[in-house]
Amino acid sequence: GDLVTSHGKVWRCTLDHTSSVNDEPDGTEASASEWQDAVGYSESDLVKVSGVAYYCLQNHTSDGAINEPGTGSNWQSYWQINYTRYWEEYDELMYTQLTVLGKLVRS
After folding, report:
1. What is the pLDDT of residues 10-58, one digit of tens each?
2. Distance between the two ends of the chain, CA-based, in angstroms?
3. What is the tens place of the pLDDT at every residue in 70-87?
4. Of 107, 39, 106, 105, which is closest to residue 69 (Cα–Cα)?
5. Which residues sit opposite 81 in a β-bridge?
6. CA distance 29 to 51
7. Beta strands 46-49 and 33-34: pairing type?
8. Do 1 and 12 touch, CB atoms closer than 8 A?
9. Are the beta carbons of 40 and 61 closer than 8 angstroms?
């Protein structure tokens, strides 16, 4: 996949897509709202908690003790950090080698 740099890190694209503000590799989201307790969320909703964006995996009603993104006892059944839909952090040594070879896609 393509390599990009964002916020001082290198990311490799893991799923073909057209880039937008909803898929920044560093996990931030311009369009995500703050997560709230006791709210109905639908699959593919985007929320933020402490500046990190999460993608909803299944319909549910939020409960801070169980499914608050990043902290609830079972949060990973309901949420995924958003950048993992399209991106993975890339090895710094490989990035350096590709940059020397002129193969960095964008910076």
Report:
1. 777 777 777 766 566 655 555 678 999 999 999 988 888 887 788 899 9
2. 15
3. 999 999 999 987 765 566
4. 39
5. 54
6. 8
7. parallel
8. yes
9. yes
Amino acid at 28: T
SS (H, E, C) 13-26: ECCCCCCCHHHCCC
Q: List Cα–Cα distances, 97 to 26, 41, 90, in angstroms.
A: 22, 43, 12
Listed in order, strand segments (DSSP E) in 7-107 are 9-13, 33-34, 40-41, 46-49, 52-56, 60-61, 79-81, 87-89
Give me the sign of the Cα torsion angle 43, 23, 3, 78. negative
Q: What element of type H or E holds 5? A: strand 3-6
The single-letter DSSP state of residue 32 is P
